[in-house]
Write a structure and sequence with these properties.
With 107 residues, this protein is of the alpha+beta class. It is built from three helices and four strands. The chain is globular.
């Protein structure tokens, strides 16, 4: 995700003039295992509870736009959990995007 995040920042700057930076401010507080095998969205959401935490203190200026990036979306629990942690720190997430870079299949 770090590579994709940097590419998004570069694109935002080169194509649109936005001074975007990667802010690696969230960390995993505990690993919940893979949620893909769970039978319901509620089970996945329950597993995400308190999974993420903020690294140190982080401040966003009033005119900043915060964009969350994720590499896959099943139920949105990861993005929701990250947005909740940021909201508790007073940071408003403006948008969330799922990106993936997959190599082409041979043949």
């Amino acid at each position: 995700m770090l590579i994709l995040s940097r590419m998004v920042c570069r694109l935002l700057y080169e194509e649109y003039g936005y001074d975007a930076v990667v802010a690696d401010v969230l960390s995993v507080a505990r690993h919940g295992g893979r949620s893909v095998g769970l039978s319901s969205a509620q089970q996945r959401a329950d597993r995400m509870g308190e999974r993420f935490r903020l690294r140190g203190s982080w401040h966003v200026t009033g005119d900043a736009t915060v964009l969350l990036l994720d590499d896959i979306i099943t139920t949105g629990s990861t993005l929701r959990g990250c947005a909740d942690v940021l909201a508790c720190a007073g940071v408003c997430v403006s948008a969330a995007v799922a990106l993936a870079d997959t190599p082409p299949r041979a043949g």
